[in-house]
Amino acid sequence: MNITAGIDVGSTYTKAIIMDGDREILGRDLRPTGFKLTEVSRTVYHCALSAAGLGEDDIDYVIATGIGRHQVDFKDIHVTDLTASARGAGFLFPGTRTVLDVGGQTMKASRLDENRKVLSFRLNDKCAAGTGAFLEKTAHYMGFSTEEIEPLMKTSKEPVTISGVCAVFAESEVINHLSLGTPPSDIMRGAIESLTERSVQLMKRVKAEPEYTLVGGILRFETMAIAVREQLQSEVNVPEPGTVQFVAALGAAILGHRRLQMLSEAMGMPAADMVQSP
Q1: Claim to verify: residue 157 and residue 72 sit in the same structural domain
Q2: Are residues 73 and 91 in the same domain?
Q3: Domain co-membership, 58 together with 110
Q4: pLDDT by residue (tens digit) across 65-116?
Q5: pTM of the model
Q6: CATH number of the domain enclosing 70
Q7: From CA 39, how far away is CA 23, in angstroms rounded?
Q8: Which of 20, 30, 77 is CA-nearest to residue 54?
Q9: SS3 of 213, please?
Q10: Exposed/middle/buried for 19, CB within 10 Å: 0-12, 13-18, 19+?
Q11: Nearest to 123 by CA among 173, 179, 174, 67
């Protein structure tokens, strides 16, 4: 049975998925990326292998993706995170035509064709005000942890407007609201609505069409999906909390199986035999 690995070295977290030929996930792992990209990619890989009860020799193909994909020194090939996320989102939700990926440092929107290939995309990676980092920074400034963001937003009664297009100006607005005695819950909800507005604008620029699938670490917060749904006035797909951060790694592992199939077809032998050949 062919087994592949997908390694997603993101700006905030690095993820690994081990997948068998039946597209079943055998193991996974997630850790903060930090600054030693090669080391963290190996760590998550070995931890995912351990969870699967496998060793490196059991893996037939490794595909790396994410901002640090070039630093994964044990990969067979690498692909962009747009490509990997498209494959992962399409695997989870076959009707996906638009993917919104909101991570810690970047936001990406892409429109797909019926074969899950990217037709157009837009990135918002120039300023933290359009990423999850702004939410976390806002929470920490007010004395709350990342884990407290979702409960805090759910208690909001009257969200305030945070209109700054730059993280510095947006932070100044947060400080101003605090000085006026605005409840932290309303500031936090205002921050997520500001992020949502930017994400929907990005989706419109790629001429987004349903089905919409939302992925990335910030989608751990249910409030983000609700806000996007309200602005789009449409249903959206969101992977379960334990999977939403792994979509690109999942897509990379799936592409590994596709790569094995293509190689076996080129060599004129079954994939299972091909990976045994010298």
Answers
A1: no
A2: no
A3: no
A4: 999 999 999 999 999 999 999 999 999 999 999 999 988 778 899 999 999 9
A5: 0.87
A6: 3.30.420.40
A7: 27
A8: 20
A9: strand
A10: buried
A11: 67
